[in-house]
Amino acid sequence: MIVLGVMAATDSLARGALAGRDPQMFYIIPLTDILIFAVPLYFAFRTRLDPPAHKRFIYIATIALLTPAIARLPFAFVYRKSPVVALLAESFLLVLVGYDLWSTRRIHRASTRPGVFRSCGHYFPPRCPDRPCPRGRDRHCRVNDQIGQ
Length: 149
Fold this sequence. Notes:
Blueprint: H1 2-15, H2 25-46, H3 51-71, H4 82-104, H5 109-123, H6 138-146
Helix pairs in contact: 1-2, 2-3, 2-5, 3-4, 3-5, 4-5
């Protein structure tokens, strides 16, 4: 899936973007999503012998796959609205945290680190200098400019 995702993103870059869109900007978005999926998946393979951690890593990798699907739901309140999609995706992480607190009375370490990585990857996406902000997140780009990124 990771290889095919990179190939599909590269193919869309080679074909160019829609009229009025920057192809390089729309290349970084799928690559970021693939990275957000690949990192928890890598750690899931590393923790195969630790079932609770493995399950949590796989769950967080699955949430990364669900984000584009949530954005395409045919409901007016969510269709192509990045803040709403991000909140819905974060709600899956809150379910995981709630399960951890209910089952073990603490948050499992495999839930916190990849959850923070996934959230940071979506709220502060990489951007190219002198290009518009990806996904229409002008407020986040101004924050990145203020901290020197």
